[in-house]
Amino acid sequence: MQNKQELNAFVICDDLYKIFKVAEIEVMALQGLDLTVRRGELVGVVGASGSGKTTLMNVLGGLTLPSAGQVIVDGKNLLKLSTRELTTYRQIEVGFVWQQGSRNLIPYLSALDNIKLPMTLAGITGPQADARARELMDKVDLPQRYDHRPIQLSGGEQQRVAIAVALANEPKLLLADEPTGELDSTTSDQVYDLLQRLNREDGLTICIVSHDPTIAQHVERVVQIRDGKLASETVRRRPLTDASVREARGISADDAESWEDHFEELIVLDSAGRLQIPKQFREDLGFENRVEMDVTEEGILIRPARNLEQTSSQAEIQIEREIRGEDNGAPSGLLARLRGRK
Which residue among 188, 215, 233 closes a domain? Predict the structure, then answer.
């Protein structure tokens, strides 16, 4: 039975896996990822290179199918769509904006013709397509660039036209992969402002993949992917305008007036009850591959396991430590002893 959050969700990724096979090597890009995005939400997706964030975007866009799990967008289970239905989904239901301008725009077409191209492929032509293209150029604040080709546009203008192209067939979901990656900070802010306006005025659900450390300032929520799984969320806390909330927190109306948006990072607990403890925390607290967990009045306490020598798995842990070596990568422990026998 779906919970309340899932019933209100526009995007649901449940225990998502994606395995790529290169030669004889299998690479697991997604490893049991869970993600829920509300209808009309503006979400940032961050993570190190190879963490799986671009793979996630390609799955949501119907460009690749997951190896296991399920992905539901606007009530449609993408794994159950036929080839024709999946093509229609990519044409109509979702829009893409890529980092590289060459993937967004045809260089020998004008801005208007670039916007009309996806409409033509969807069977919309003539005055209707032309009117829609002009409307979108006005929406992205480029009414004076109708007949300009991409080479005649600045990087920021190219990305705004690319957004207009992505919106040509009125999609419900917009996916942007590093849309500001090749832009300066001022132009990046203009692109973010445009995406915020589309989200606010049109109710468009938008997911943005980015390496930009300031993205939390431009979206409602930032999710971090680590090793193919959702690791944490950074949520924006809005100013306190509700009197009952202020009273419950003991904050006066005067203090609330100076309350600014602030951001709070939350560790994600997935559907299997797993969470990812940040590496820095594990190193600082001396966590190995076993921990102890207790329930306290304030919540759950996790601490390094004690008396590991009394457990049956201690021999395995010791072997792992010795194979790794503890002296800055120098051969030590078991590895050194094995080499000494040769």
Answer: 233
